[in-house]
Amino acid sequence: MPHAVPMTTSPQKEDDDSSLPDAPTPPSDESQGKTEIDKSNNGKTDIKLEDLFNDDDDDEYDDGEETPSSEVMGRELKSSPPMKPLEIAPTAKYSDPEIMLAFYQRLFPFRYLYQWLNHSMKPSKDFGHREFAFTLQNDVYLRYQSFPSSDLLRKDVLRLNPSRFEIGPVYTANPSDRKILRKSTAFRPMEKELVFDIDLTDYDEIRTCCNKANICHKCWSFVTMAIKIVDAALRDDFGFQHIMWVYSGRRGAHAWISDKRARTMDDHRRRALAGYLEVIKGGAQSGKKVNPKRTYNGDLHPHLARSLDLLKGHFQTDILEGQDPWSDNDKAERLLKLLPDKALNDALRKKWDSAPGRSSASKWADIDTLAKTGASKTLDGRALLEAKQDVVLEYTYPRLDVEVSKKQIHLLKSPFVIHPGTGRVCVPIDLRRLERFDPLGVPTVTELLGEIDAWDSASKKPERDEKSKKLQDYEKTSLKPYVDYFRAHVASILKEEKGVKREREDGDPMEF
Amino acid sequence: MIKQEFNRIDPKRRNIVAHKKKQFAESAYEKQEYPHRLNLYELPPTADITLEDFEKWAIDRLRILAELEACSFRNKTPSETAEHIKPLLLKYLPLSPNSSAPSSVAWRDPKLQQERQKDHYSHFILRLAFSSTEDLRRRFARIETALFKLRFQNDDTRERQDFVRSLDFNWETVGDEEKKALATNLRSATPGLKKEELEEGGWFKVDFETVPELVEQRRVFLKAGKAYVPVREQMSMVLAGFTERLDKGLELTSRALPRLDEDDRLTPILTHLSKNFATPDAHISDSDSSLPGAPINASSIDLLSQHFPLCMRNLHLTLRKNDHLKHFGRLQYTLFLKGIGLNLEDALIFWRASFKRKTDDEFNKEYKYNVRHSYGDVGGDATRRGRGYSPFSCQKILTEHPPGSNEAHGCPYRHFSPDNLVALLQATGVNDRDVLCGVREDVAEDKKRYHIACNRVFEYAHKAELRKVKEEGTWPASELDTIVHPNTYFKRSYLLKNGGKVGVEESGRGDEMEM
């Protein structure tokens, strides 16, 4: 179709600061040189319309803890952090610039982040040509930042003190050189981790406990289910190994897949993979949203059959009991709409009308009971079974924001940054303890900084020996298990990449 | 083709032929032969052709490609497309199977060779013409792939097998034991599989990246990164191979293109060719949709919405109901409003007023930019952004970004369940039983004629007016064609209801609008 026109003009929102009319003028004296805000645009990258628009209204940061931004920028920063006690009142706001700064200085695992993105200890393009995008405290958005090493990334993060930052693809050239390249084709994305995004707002039509940005333990089980399903497919079907799940800080989770094969996938293949995983389709008015293909004898695709197996138990406990979605008879109409037999539906409706407030679990059981008693003469048992399977999928199968996964160029929030709305750290989720992961128990930045102080004051009095002083700050806090998990994850990537590289080097000794 | 490759001298060993012998050695670039009807276009042509042939062959191929593309815009099914293209192919770009030649010469038949040469050369000429921009490359690759697919499907079974065998693909066959062990999975992963196929048919094991289409539609069994593909899905793999080679080739061509400047005979022809194939989308002009004199401003949208097609009507109703639209909805609607002639200033007023429950601050921060960007007012390179995006065509709305949960964009005929669709139609005043029945039939799973449904509603809603203009002959026939763009719907509806006339000078532009 001719309208599949790539944008030759690249609509980068940061490039026009008039787009943020209420933002203060960008920092002047501090941010000279390459991190200056892009006022003009080079239009070189192939950014699609949808990428521009995908910071949707239901933005993660919508409850706007607006932070005063004026003082932040003028601060004098030393490259080595001062080790004085932080003296942060526990009541301090987590979006307070000073708190953010202390977090970056003392807790953020820059070194592992570097290794994770670089796939090696040695500096390489994988990191050097990688795009970072900063959101400053005054909401100015800086794209195309790049850094040769973790130290330089750290230095700039400390200087700019962003409220969050995102990670983009590795480009064919250094993003900071993109304007001096002669040809527009010389600057394009080359590699990026395959990513997935699960967001609980996409479950609003089926969750009864919360809506919008709010979450509780009940609805977190949707995310747990989604992680299980997607993770199983990625490992068993696609053969990926280096998958890390990260709590997004408020009401969702991200997956980052670092296998070489995943990183080098082009957009076409990403779209195929996303399509493979996407089952729930349709907008507000589409009616039945799960319509999987079946073979002539009613089998589902192995991926769906496996998913259904994994989800059955959750459906009973987390949906029927936890969410109780059809307790009102009005709401039960939704269920009836998904069932195929009219006579059976009439019988069910009659039964439920005479017993208002009947629980969802009982209603679900009623379907089979009434079907067996022969409430409908036209009943097709297989159609009913399949419809019931579809209902289970509609209420439990992952609802992915697939647009995020389809494009290399898509930016995704970095692990370990602070969610500006909740103050929680975007920590990795250990799959071995997935069921026990508690999003509401994830440490907030203020708690963590308090923990360092508590540790320091506790250890100062009995004058410890030299060794304990060498403890890194994160080790003094409840962030430790998460950083350790991250480190182990990174180590396994490095190990594999090393093997791959050696293979490549040894590959053809005759080739010069 | 394959033979040729064999003859070619490996660049690293070129000096094996002694220098003195070399000048008497046979040219490596001899005339190519075409044992197969189909061609993956891996080797560029090397023989000389006349300038006349150069242009003529290219134009002939271009004709076919343009027709193919038009078919896809009109949402024709593959079989309809094949039917439509067949006579044209025979006329402009015939490719006969080997079996059509006398068996004594088989594929060496000069007529066959000539046809195949033309196919081969014209492909490469168009490659030159269409490799200059990313946009052209992508379109060219897509249509060429469609053409290849069409021909592949129509190829004689035996010849197709020969062709596939001649290709050098890395396909691992699945052993009997493995096949047995995975039988259940293979069966349930491959809908429509026959028993014999499972037991006797061959299976390939390939990297899943090779068969993205099958993966996307979940029509293949995947295990540890390998896809298990039955023989009959070969096409998908051959197609993937074709596209991959073509994409690479185009990329290479584009890099080599600047050097072509030296030949001042070819450049004008190539430029001319690519211009004829320019993206219609880029040239949407004001006169296509705007209505001079019509009162189109922020406060008239509510009133005008009666002339909107159902997709926009639905967005408008949703906007009024929720005081909000999600972003693809905003995008689709903003561009449509831009298309009907709402200027940026009014668009901002309209959206500001519509998002009642947002504060000025929220509006300015989260929404204003997107509206301005749609109008090309901000973002991107000032010299390149032009006037922002073009309003979406039906094709785009139907095929891209299907609505997700709580989203209202897309095409109601396609993205609504039939019951909800009928309810919406009734809410917008379409109550005629026959029309509703017709619509239900049009959008049914086996028909998928969403355009027809929309046009059916249009004709019903403007029955009297349409009869009048037809009787009076005030509208040119091109203005009575099937509507394939929401903005065309609005324009016709508005003109019909207001007794306006369609200027003759505009009628020729219908095609440009379709994008």
Automatic annotation (TrEMBL), chain A:
SUPFAM superfamilies xref list: Prim-pol domain
Residues covered by region (Disordered): 1-84
Biased amino acid composition, Acidic residues: 52-68
Keywords from the UniProt entry: DNA replication, DNA-directed RNA polymerase, Metal-binding, Nucleotidyltransferase, Primosome, Transcription, Transferase
Enzyme type, top EC level: transferase
Gene Ontology terms describing biological process: DNA replication, synthesis of primer
The EC number(s) this enzyme carries: 2.7.7.-
InterPro entries: DNA_primase_S, DNA_primase_ssu_euk/arc
One Gene Ontology cellular component: alpha DNA polymerase:primase complex
Any Pfam family: DNA_primase_S
Keyword Transferase: yes
Ranges annotated as biased composition (Basic and acidic residues): 31-51
GO molecular function: DNA-directed RNA polymerase activity; metal ion binding
UniProt xrefs under PANTHER family: DNA PRIMASE SMALL SUBUNIT (PTHR10536)
Annotated NCBIfam families: primase_sml (TIGR00335)
Family per record: Belongs to the eukaryotic-type primase small subunit family.
Protein name according to UniProt: DNA primase
Species annotation: Heterodermia speciosa
Automatic annotation (TrEMBL), chain B:
Any one of the GO CC terms: alpha DNA polymerase:primase complex
Binding site for [4Fe-4S] cluster: C311, C394, C411, C454
GO biological process, alphabetically ordered: DNA replication initiation; DNA replication, synthesis of primer
Keyword Iron: yes
Cofactor requirements of the protein: [4Fe-4S] cluster
Keyword Phosphoprotein: no
Every DNA primase large subunit C-terminal domain range: 305-490
Annotated cofactor note: Binds 1 [4Fe-4S] cluster.
Coiled-coil region(s): none
Domain of life: Eukaryota
GO molecular function (one): metal ion binding
Any Pfam family matching the protein: DNA_primase_lrg
UniProt KW keywords: 4Fe-4S, DNA replication, DNA-binding, Iron, Iron-sulfur, Metal-binding, Primosome
Role according to the record: DNA primase is the polymerase that synthesizes small RNA primers for the Okazaki fragments made during discontinuous DNA replication.
Family, as annotated: Belongs to the eukaryotic-type primase large subunit family.
Name of this protein: DNA primase large subunit
Organism: Heterodermia speciosa
